[in-house]
Design brief:
Layout (H helix, E strand, L loop, with lengths): L1 H19 L5 H13 L5 E8 L4 E3 L11 E7 L1 H10 L12 H5 L6 H15 L17 H15 L3 H6 L1 H10 L8 H15 L4 H9 L5 H12 L5 H17 L5 H9 L5 H16 L3 H18 L6 H22 L7 H17 L5 H16 L2 E3 H34 L7 H8 L2 H20 L4 E2 L9 E4 L1 E10 L13 E4 L11 E4 L8 H9 L3 E3 L2 H7 L6 E6 L5 E5 L5 H5 L26 E2 L14 H12 L8 E3 L1 H8 L2 E2 L4 E2 H17 L4 H20 L5 H14 L9 E7 L15 E5 L2 H13 L4 H8 L10 E7 L5 E6 L11 E7 L11 E5 L4 E5 L5 E4 L7 E4 L9 H18 L10 E8 L2 E9 L4 H5 L1 H6 L8 E3 L5
Parallel strand pairs: 5-12, 7-8, 8-9, 9-10
Antiparallel strand pairs: 1-2, 1-3, 4-28, 6-10, 7-11, 11-12, 13-14, 14-19, 15-16, 17-18, 17-19, 20-21, 20-26, 21-22, 22-23, 24-25, 26-27
Helix pairs in contact: 9-10, 9-12, 11-12, 13-14, 14-15, 15-16, 15-17, 17-18, 17-19, 17-21, 18-19, 19-20, 19-21, 27-28, 28-30
Keywords: ATP-binding, Kinase, Magnesium, Metal-binding, Nucleotide-binding, Pyruvate, Transferase
InterPro entries: ATP_grasp_subdomain_1, PEP_synth, PPDK_AMP/ATP-bd
Protein name: Phosphoenolpyruvate synthase
Length: 969
Amino acid sequence: MQKSIFILILFSIIFISEINSQKKSPAEVKQLVNLYKDDIRGPYYRIKWFCKDGSIRDSKDPCPDDIGGGIQHASFKTSALELRKTNHLFFGEILANTKTNEFLDELNNYSRLKQYQINNYLKSIDDGWVLRKGQYYRGAVQSEDEEAWGKDFFETILKNETFLKQNYYLLRQALKDIPHNGDTNLGQLMRSESKTLAEEIPSFMDIRIKIHGNPQETDIFLVKNFINKKDAELTLKEKKNLQNLIVTMEQFYAPLDFKKIDKEVASLQGNNMVIEQLKNFSKYFNQNKSPKKIVENAASILANIRTNILDFKSTKDRLKLLDISNQLENVLLIETQNWETQTLQETASKIETLSCAALGSGLLEFWEYDQIENKFTKFVKNDNSTVKEVNELLNTSRSVVEWSASFIKANYNEDVLKYTEFEPLAYGFIDDRVRNSIALSLGETISKLGAFVSKISNIKNDVMSIDNQSTIRGLNPGYAYGNLVVVDGNPDDIDVNTANIYIFQNPPSDLKPVAGIMTVSEGNLVSHVQLLARNLGIPNAALSSKNLSDLKKYDGKKVFFAVSHKGNVILKDEDDMTDEEEKLFEKQERSKNMIEVPIKDIRLDVTKVINMREVNATDSGKLCGPKAANLGELKNLFPDQVVEGLIIPFGVFRKHMNLPMPNENKTYWQYLNDTFIEAKNKKKYGISDEMIERYLVQSLKKLHTAILDIQLNKDFIVDLKDNFKSIFKDDIGRVPVFLRSDTNMEDLKEFTGAGLNLTLFNIKKENEILEGVKRVWASAYTERSFKWRQKYLLNPENVYPSILIIPSVDVDYSGVMITKGINAGTDEDLTVAFSRGAGGAVDGQSAETRLITKNNDYLLAPARQADYIRLPDYGGTKKYYTSFDKEILNKNNIKDIRELASTVRKKIGAKADDKNQAFDVEFGFKDDKLWLFQIRPFVENKQAKSSDYLNAITPKVESNKQINITEKI
């Protein structure tokens, strides 16, 4: 009996332990955060002694000297320790006694280190955050132990030259947050104190905006004058907080301690050029007060420190250099605000200098900087230029600031989003880092250049009268009318509405159709979302984070939105619409711009699995969709670069749809058709489009669920297994494969359908493949798929999915090519976007995007996606992380891409009805060998391209007009 009770107790302990070790939901984490905020010890338990031999003693029992002594600090509550195991979340981190490799957290893309920085930010803006009361828990953290640990930490990791090269930006940022040299992150403290004051004192908001957006030393006087002016209205606490801000600002703007720097420089041993530059800068700074010269010198030194730091073999010297580098960057950020440019030439020179500083501070990689450096040098040396060349300079300049800002986001976004789930304030961390970087000054200078370019090009944006409109540029032409929704948080949390116009920080990869889109991070030009927007004539524009913030106050308003062919953008209140603009949205017959899915030649009698080698492009829409038909064509043209494949044709799907649908007294097919017949009847009876759409979505959701449970025909399963054996030379369950939905609604002349339905990655197990067949069939009836095609199709009930099954290729990198220039270049050029791993670029990753011409290739954007997936042989996907220090595509890849495009144009383009037809090609490289996965026609919206209104608002630009670059701007 006692034994039974013991076993029961033991089982209960294990069961409770397992429950506690499960990952906590965001709501549960939020609850813990709130508990810590109200606890006088926060996440800490009690003060302990941590001994050198690994033992832990009570606070009144110090570690003996004979075991090496120890250090004293707080231990953590069980809940905080559990959170580390279940959610990999680290709150109230105490560095002393933490193992270097565990804190660095390399396997998780340095997440623990980054969380330490995010925690510091939250503490600075939210009164200690989880340590709101715990920050007064005496003895919890010993500053001298933290600083000693920090110094040892940096000297240890700086031995790793690969880490230093690949994570230069992250390392310099960590130096600002981890105590090691008696320093603090004064820039962040200044911004957080001003933010808190603005929340407490609304009239302080204008000064807070100035400090955040255009910080200068004269802001100290603004704060002092504010205190004098408001003295009678301020409480003692408010006055104290304002005085604290002044102290922080005075420390931030205090001159460098050159005596200390000179002493450290004198002890350095390494690259003599860097050492001499530092010595000269110290002398120069005290003799010459020209902001321009100081910024130019500081930028040069920043770049040279980064270039030559490995010449300094001592990790102590490397640490000194990086600390000096951060101090010089701070000087540069202050002085660049004092460097005022008057002419086009001076402005271009300043942008060139700040671009060099972006390289030196780690925001650009060396290979990226090489792509843009000559463009500035060439421009600055000439006396005259043309409107076209000045526009090219602006585009290059915009690229630099976008690449810099996106580099910051790429480093921190994953952890910031993780924290935002339970602490929305964390979303401001990335913006704070941008504001404390070269990107802020770059953006301001480029706005000035943009205003000048708009003037000489006659390109004028008209966006709600906000400032800095030159940073806004159109991507896809079109016009829309609807409610404006400004989303500055995670876009995946938003349930979008078809009738709304959305402004996102970055677009979600599975975006449902909307009326219009503006994004800070445009993803890439050839993602499925971008192609669908272009295809449907959905106006799409890019803007800056500052523009998004300025437009936040218009959230919820009814607006008109238009993008012209030249990329100028209109966004105005509905009350300001012209008569011509109002007429664009008068009620029209639904069929005017609708198309019909052709089913006249469909072959539903073929109910056997087909070898992909047996089909070609002429079978598209008959036996199968265009993916399989075109890939069969490619298999004949490129036999060594296209995998084998098998096809589950339309007929197999229709045969299963003729089965009785549970609880409906009819077949699946009858249910589908009856649903659309009922929708048409509702239309006749005057029921609103919104109510009809809701009915269709609910009915199709029911069908989707039913198809997931459909009983697959036994003869079909045997046929599928036999074809695996004959085509893939192995049994089902032993070959990892892709299952790709391939409908007859894709790649029509007026509609692409790109990415609407399901692709299953690298499935190996037999039961998962069989279930996957049903999942792919059902995906044609998801809300997202239905809503996109509903915009265009007259007979959406006649959508038939086939399935293309191909063996997985574990590519090193993959992407998309459009056989024409998009937004840049000509119809003879190629637009290519690539990401590391499988599935690159199509889901909107921030991909390496290039314009490839006959003789050159131009970097439009570098990759800014830190994570990627590979396809292991055991099936599924495996996540990896990458740095950005190397480009993805090499010269041989680009040569292969040109040859591929040439063959596609000659052999497939020649068969197209339109000889100028461009193509959308998906492919990848494995060990530098090109593998082809898909080809489809590239479809653009002809109505948007030919609209009289869009033509009317498109400015006429005199590209060859001469501009004197010494004239004032």
